[in-house]
Automatic annotation (TrEMBL), chain A:
Keyword Amino-acid biosynthesis recorded: no
The 4Fe-4S ferredoxin-type domain, residue ranges: 19-50, 51-80
GO molecular function terms listed in the Swiss-Prot or TrEMBL record: iron ion binding; iron-sulfur cluster binding
Entries under InterPro entries matching the protein: 4Fe4S_Fe-S-bd (IPR017896), Fd_FixX (IPR012206)
Keywords: Electron transport, Iron, Iron-sulfur, Metal-binding, Transport
Protein's name in the database: 4Fe-4S dicluster domain-containing protein
Keyword presence, Iron: yes
Pfam family membership, one: Fer4_10
Gene3D superfamilies (UniProt xref): 3.30.70.20
TrEMBL record, chain B:
Cofactor list: FAD
Domain of life of the source: Archaea
Species of the source: Acidianus infernus
The protein, known as: FAD-dependent oxidoreductase
Signal peptide: none
Length: 89, 407
């Protein structure tokens, strides 16, 4: 299996200065299943040992999934100004 | 109140560009806002287009558009488990009804066609906010504020204008995640031939399936699965396409890894298609057909875009920008809503867990019995009924489902 970061490294990114994803990690502490960690195709959300979530917003593939994957509304997502550009699509 | 244009289109993909081309040809004053540096920069699609709508939009498109290959072979593979799968193919040489496409190339071409016809496209323009003001809608963008009495939302499944106006509620069961890789390969086929493989059951737990589309010198390999099934998948979303590719045995250099959300509503669950001063087209309107044999979004995007362009003309002429129902009435008369309605029975059937896992397993068991010779042997129908009983499914239900599948 080709590692995720190697696959993401094939893409062109123009990362915004300010994160376009914000997570209310106080909500995450009470979330057992953490569906965001398994449902994001870019591995944007990583579970931390303290029960919170680390957000790697620079990996985002802009699928829009963040708008539906958190059942508790802890993720605030807007599309970035720069972000990813696909060569093939 | 003064407006910046008769119509503002948000999104420069297939539906937005089709709406733009049509509206400009109807003589309207149109601005199209595209988030990417170029059209197609943000687009991801499995990669097959049924071209009947494209030919209506650009009659000589077949000669000029950057299409990849005509699809002349359809293969379905249904995995029952690790060791057993059902495969069937249908081949029709010289068929030119659908083509594999790569959207970055295709959308860029369509955008240049639109610009040549006089459509004004503002690239790298992101809509940040939308609100009603005066007799129209105001859009705040990273490049300033724009106002129009009519907005066509062609921004894809996340429908930004509808969303910002509070007209959309999304749920994970009505959206699919599409993940895809482009694989460099020597396609061992003549130029006028191409194949689509549809693969179900290769990855357990997910609701959906995988695909392989043959491009000129690459393959598009990917999966489309509902977001609500992802936590039950044997692989996390980030490994889905890799696991799938390994399971079906495709190797090669990866050129691109991409992802996109896909609308999966079905005719009876479509979101609002219009509101005062506002029209939704393509993915933003939830237009996707999956009837088990054909999976279509791009022709519906072009078709609905063209209708929106024509409806815009009528709305602008009438000066009644509240009456966007005009668009819906035109859609009802078109192939877009007619085909969506026709496909609904099978769409529902495909969504049933019976269809996705139990029926394939029963079929595999029956076929396995058929090809196994032992002293004890049953008739095919008795074996089938026995295998159904084993799963607790009455024959009457299977007959009903079969009827649904062909209706």
């Amino acid at each position: 299996m080709v590692p995720l970061l190697k696959r993401l490294g094939l893409n062109t990114y123009n990362v915004d200065k300010k994160p376009h994803i914000e997570v209310n990690t106080d909500i995450c502490i009470n979330c057992k299943d953490k569906p965001c960690t398994v449902s994001c195709p870019a591995g944007t959300y990583e579970a931390l040992p303290d029960g919170r979530i680390a957000v790697h917003y620079e990996r985002c593939l802009e699928c829009g999934g963040a708008l539906v994957i958190c059942p508790f509304g802890a993720i605030k997502f807007r599309f970035p100004e720069g972000g990813i550009s696909y060569r093939y699509g | 109140m003064s407006f910046d244009a008769d119509v503002i289109i948000v999104g420069g993909g297939l539906s937005g560009l089709s709406a733009g081309i049509t509206a400009v040809m109807e003589g309207l004053n149109v601005i199209l806002l595209e988030r990417g540096e170029y059209s197609g920069a943000k687009n991801v699609s499995g990669g097959r287009m049924y071209i009947h709508a494209l030919k209506m939009l650009i009659p000589d498109a077949l000669e000029r558009a950057p299409l990849e290959r005509p699809i002349t072979k359809e293969t379905f593979e249904i995995f029952c488990d690790k060791n057993r799968k059902i495969t069937f193919s249908f081949e029709e040489k010289d068929k030119k009804n659908s083509f594999s496409v790569l959207r970055s190339k295709f959308d860029r071409w369509l955008a240049s066609e639109a610009e040549n016809l006089g459509l004004l496209i503002s690239y790298s323009t992101l809509v940040l906010n939308a609100y009603r003001e005066g007799e129209g809608i105001t859009l705040e963008t990273n490049r300033g504020t724009l106002k129009a009495p009519l907005i066509i939302d062609a921004s894809g499944v996340t429908s930004i204008v509808f969303r910002l106006l509070g007209l959309r509620k999304f749920t994970p069961d009505k959206w699919m995640l599409g993940v895809k890789e482009i694989i460099k390969t020597d396609v061992n086929l003549p130029e006028n031939e191409g194949e689509v493989r549809t693969i179900v059951g290769a990855i357990k737990g997910v609701k959906g399936g995988g695909f392989v589309y043959t491009n000129k010198d690459t393959l598009s390999v990917g999966m489309a699965v509902t977001f609500d099934s992802l936590p039950k998948s044997e692989f996390p979303a980030k490994d889905l396409v890799e696991a799938f590719r390994e399971r079906i045995g495709i190797e090669g250099e990866i050129l691109e890894y991409s992802a996109h959300a896909i609308p999966y509503y079905g005719f009876k669950n479509l979101p609002p298609l219009y509101d005062k001063n506002l029209i939704a087209v393509g993915d933003s309107a939830g237009f996707l057909i999956n009837d088990g044999f054909t999976i279509r979004g791009m022709d519906l995007a072009i078709g609905s875009g063209m209708i929106a362009g024509l409806a815009a003309k009528k709305i602008v002429e009438s000066r009644n920008f509240s009456n966007t129902e005009v668009y819906y009435e035109m859609l009802k008369d078109s192939f877009v809503l007619k085909h969506l309605e026709l496909a609904y029975n099978r769409f529902e059937l495909i969504n049933s867990p019976l269809t996705l896992s139990t029926y394939p397993e029963i079929l595999c068991n029956v076929l396995s019995d058929m090809f196994t010779v032992e002293e004890n042997r049953n008739t095919l129908i008795n074996d089938f009924i026995y295998r159904l009983k084993e799963k607790g499914i009455p024959l009457s239900q299977t007959v009903r489902d079969l009827w649904k599948a062909i209706k």
